[in-house]
Design goal:
Blueprint (H helix, E strand, L loop, with lengths): L3 E4 L3 E3 L4 E7 L8 E7 L6 E7 L5 E3 L7 E6 L4 E6 L8 E8 L3 H4 L8 E2 L3 E6 L1
Parallel strand pairs: 2-11
Antiparallel strand pairs: 1-3, 3-8, 4-5, 4-9, 5-6, 7-8, 9-10, 9-11
Amino acid sequence: QVQLVESGGTLVQAGDSLRLACAASRRNFSSGVMGWFRQAPGKEREFAAAIMWSGTNTWYGDSVKGRFTISRDNAKMTVYLQMNSLKPEDTAVYYCAAGPLTTATVNGDARAYDYWGQGTQVTVSS
């Protein structure tokens, strides 16, 4: 069992930056993947980014590419999502998730992830 706890969500203004953190109770496994998703009211859950616990590979959803950066600190078992140039349409509950390294997880299929955090609210005002 992996427990995930997100933090860092808050109210910011358009153009601001914000960093979210996701602390894992343990690594899912050495080749596992950690992902960030977001869900706005009335919309489906959307893939934002994913990273492996080992190696340098990262993956991003089209809507955040170039503005968001995912990173990790293995010693702290924490994954971060640095969000720059925030827009009102980035307003959502942000979730982190853990899953195996598969084509589905790195392509952002939420159904392929096994563990989820409770989410943290990010609100971007215009």
